[in-house]
Specification:
Strand content: under 5%
Helix content: 55-70%
Largest sheet: none
Oligomer: single chain
Structural class: mainly alpha
Order of helices and strands: HHH
Length: about 50
């Protein structure tokens, strides 16, 4: 998966896969909040801009 993301111009750190049950709303909220913070810390996805 990492190679495919890199080939597509997406930084692999911008992708995360998690399993959350429909009954785990609090866990889902925590994961989304953490993912949002992680991506904001990375800044803009330069790989797509540099490829143009």
């Amino acid at each position: 998966m990492q190679r495919m993301l890199e080939f597509s111009g997406i930084d692999p750190q911008r992708f995360q896969a998690r399993w959350v049950s429909g009954s785990e709303a609090q866990k889902f909220a925590q994961i989304v909040t953490q993912l949002t913070e992680d991506i904001k810390a990375l800044g803009p996805n330069r790989k797509l801009r540099d490829a143009r």
